[in-house]
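Hi there, hope your week has been kind to you so far. Thanks so much in advance, here it is:
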Amino acid sequence: MTKPTLLFVCTHNAGRSALGAALAREQAGDRAVVLSAGVNPAETASAGTIASLAEIGIDDSAHVPTKVTEELVRNATVVISMKPGLDLPEVDGVAYETWDLPNPQGWEAPAIRPLRDHIGDRVTELLDRVAPA
């Protein structure tokens, strides 16, 4: 069986989708391929996001926001929109999910913790469905 590819997408690929992808990589190990992208990527990842991940032992300091492309979507098994209304390519055969999450832009790590933990729980549930251990 081939590994599923999970693509986490938000607006800037600096906060929500970066959190989702980092948490999914950590939880999935080699059970899934995990990517992230943004419809309008920021120049750098959110410092608060990177700090909140570091608090739980995940080093995502090398994250560089990436633009979502039709090819990225086409190669995904599941595309997870981290907010409603993102303009994403519609590709037959790709599953889409929308998670309605607040935008942590400008938030410090302490404010991001509850969002990080909530996304972590959602990621666990997603992996149980698409890449069971």
